[in-house]
Amino acid sequence: MRCWDPRIEEMPKEDLQRMQYKLLKSLVYRLYSFSPFYHDRMKEEKVHPDDIRELADVKKLPFMFKRDLRDNYPDKIFTATQDDLVRYHVSSGTTGKPTVVGYTQNDLNLWTESLARGLTSIGLGRGDVIQVSYGYGLFTGGLGMHYGAERIGATVLPTSVGNTERQIELMQDLGATAIACTPSYLLHIGEVAEKMGVSIKKDTKLRAGILGAEPWTDGMRTRIEDWLGIKAYDIYGTSELSGPMYTECAEQKGFHIWSDIALVEIIDPKTGESLEPGEKGELTITMLQKEALPMIRFRIGDITVVEDGVCPCGRTHPRIQRIQGRVDDMLIIRGINVFPSQVEYALMAIPEVGQHFQIIVERKGALDDMLVKVELNKESFSDKIPEIMKVREKVEHRLRNSLNVNVNVELVEPGSLPRFEGKSKKVIDKRSL
Amino acid sequence: MDTKNYVIKQISIFSENRPGRLASIAHALGEEKINILAFSIAEANGFGVVRALVDHPEKAYKKLSSLGFNVAFTDVIAVQMQDIPGGLYEIAKVLGDAQINIEYSYAYSGKDAAVLILRVDQVEDAIGKIQKSGATLLERSVFH
Question: What DSSP element (H or E) covers A153?
Fold first, then answer.
């Protein structure tokens, strides 16, 4: 099958834009009438639903940020009641508090449809066995891919993350033809397979990887494709938009952002001005049909370029290029978003250590390794090594709990970490992708 | 008998495990004309604890603290050993028989005899037992 939904996927651009305008208009009316949060925001900006007279008028609407979700924890800006919610997902916030995303049945359906289109566009469908090695649970990756893969009639192998040797055995025994995971985890699988004497290229049926949840490069793509003998496709999404949602097509020329689901803008992160297609800026997305948690002009923080031309594959929807960076200091560690401010908040609650810290991220083998250096307080130093070890374990435990990733902690002498040198010095990212 | 005379003030210094840390500690003590009589380094994952007997512990504490080091005082005892095979055994046996646990220990071989520095869980008890065994404990005044 070439297209999952050819009517939408190959719809002429003018028709798509007309559809977007109608969806935007009704969305804005609905929010103005029923969402106190968004009503107030629009009043502050002195904009009324009647001011939306064409698609370009989206620029009049106020932005939303991740902090809006945090400030309204857990569900204060939801526009569906809990009766109508069928699922929650939870992701890390910038402070101690996570952000909660709720879904109605229609929300899940559209998310699944979006993935069904993407998976079909890379040639997957009935007869394929898709191994889902994203984490299942509060993280959107596992369940999102799971439903998308089922929708196209593929057979899902829900291995989730971890137990890599077993993943490789099952991949062989059940004839997985595609795998969805982070690119670094796929590299790890490749390395473990070699140690087991298994060549992914020769001894498995794997032919496609749907790889995302962390930044990677074309260099890494070439390496993966040559080494493992598969085609590697990038996938993009964040929990605020639903989850992993938009894939590249077989052309591997950027993510197709389905216009009936999302309205894409690129914004100058400093001024908030809209940029033209082809200009680099902050990805800003309006989810046109979400029911439980509408996101209007949501400033994701990812830097990219939008391309508006028709894709060589024939699909008419705009594409965005690989993510080229962040406007903030968010890190992605093994697919999990980590903000340095989360580390700061966690450390504030531990009296044995100071509040200065330094994060050092490296790739050990194929996997990310995060080290946090903290200063041991004078009062907590006692000459007893087991007690110092206990402090270190406590800090590691607290950080693991609040960040959801494994962290190694190194205790350093008080006053030894750099101070007053701006945010960037707090993070040393030695990963070369 | 006043056991206090035998309780010696050791200074312990928290140190990152990287080149040059011991040099800066030693340099600071040298500057203050503080003599190091015995010392050891205990290494743990990523950090270490430098332990030293010095002739002026208060001065050392002040100097190192002012440089930002984490410093603590710890009570230890020093036993004179016969510098012959079996010398350590005699002392270790006395403490073992008395169910006194040695948390850590280090030794130096001086001009007159070998000296064993001990950090034990029951200091008073250990002093009593060692004296009773006939071994010689060094008084605090020997060091500072």
Answer: none
| Contact with chain B for residue A381, Cβ under 8 A | yes
Give the domains, in start order, of chain A with CATH numbers: 1-327 (3.40.50.12780), 336-429 (3.30.300.30)
Query: Could you tell me if B123 lies within 8 Å of chain A, comparing CB atoms?
Result: no
The answer to whether the CB atoms of A414 and B68 lie below 8 A apart is: yes
Model confidence over B77-90: pLDDT tens digits? 999 988 888 888 98
Q: Are A339 and A331 in contact (CB under 8 A)?
A: yes
Q: Which amino acid is at A148?
A: G
Longest dimension (CA), chain A: 73
Number of inter-chain CB pairs under 8 A, A vs B? 49
Cβ within 8 Å, pair B51-A383: yes
Each residue's pLDDT tens digit, B93-141: 999 999 999 999 999 887 777 899 999 999 999 999 999 988 889 998 8
Write down the domain spans for chain B: 8-74, 76-143
For chain A, positions 407-426, list CB contacts with chain B under 8 A: 410-416
Dist CA A184 CA A405 (whole Å)? 15
Do residue B46 and residue A410 have CB atoms under 8 angstroms apart? yes
ipTM metric: 0.84
Q: What is the pLDDT of residues B33-79, one digit of tens each?
A: 999 989 999 998 889 999 999 999 999 999 999 998 999 999 999 99
At the topology level, CATH places domain B76-143 in Alpha-Beta Plaits (3.30.70)
> Would the pLDDT of A421 be above 60?
no
The CATH number of B8-74 is 3.30.2130.10
A-contacting residues in B 2-21 (Cβ below 8 Å) = 10, 12, 14-16
Chain segment A113-128, per-residue pLDDT in tens: 999 999 999 999 999 9
CB A171 within 8 A of CB A179: yes
Residue B34: phi and psi, rounded to 5, are -95, 130
- Whether the pLDDT of residue A272 is over 60: the answer is yes
Looking at A166-175, A284-293, B34-43, which range is the least confident one?
B34-43
Residue whose entry in the numeric block shows the structure tokens 């604890």: B49
What residues does A303 pair with on adjacent strands? Answer: A282, A325
Which stretches of A152-291 are DSSP H helices? 164-173, 183-195, 200-203, 218-228
Partner residue facing B44 (CB), from A382, A389, A416: A389
3-state DSSP helix/strand/coil percent for chain A, to nearest 5?
Answer: 35, 25, 40
